[in-house]
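User: quick one, fold this
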Amino acid sequence: MKYPILTSLRHKGKVIELDTAREMVVLLGINGDVIGSLSWDFVIDQILTYRKVSVQKEVRSEPRISLAFRVRYNSPEGPRFESRAGGIGGGGLFIESQTPLPVGTRLAMEFSLPEKSEEWMPAKGTVAWVCPKADQYTFSPGMGIRFTEIAENVRDRIHELVKAIQNIDQAA
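Assistant:
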């Protein structure tokens, strides 16, 4: 299916073609020449990347902090990974990953907070959102994890850490 661009001043006369057989979006020039194409996966990832900012602000119910620490995780049917987390709050954490798992994936994980890096704390969570590439809000691609099971004492330690770092930031 071809859709002519009629109202965009910068691109008037060009055509967007949806190639359903190859799942591609193709941009055609005024003379019908192919300017470029993108896979549907890429287009969807871009939409989700920019959409997650507003969704993230709407659904986060607890304060969080940017903090680098180690995390190990796996999905029920997947291999075990070790990575770096880039932020945490009482509701979840952000795992840095070049290949984030799909939204809705359930994870078993354990993480080690900087003040006691030898102690690993277990939790379970679900991938709530994915950032396929670094942007102005995340410095690394990865995935936001919402905790689904976490011991109360572990959540309390997270709350204490968040509050302590926020107090340090406010004092500075």
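User: anything notable?
Assistant: The CA atoms of residues 6 and 12 lie 5 Å apart.
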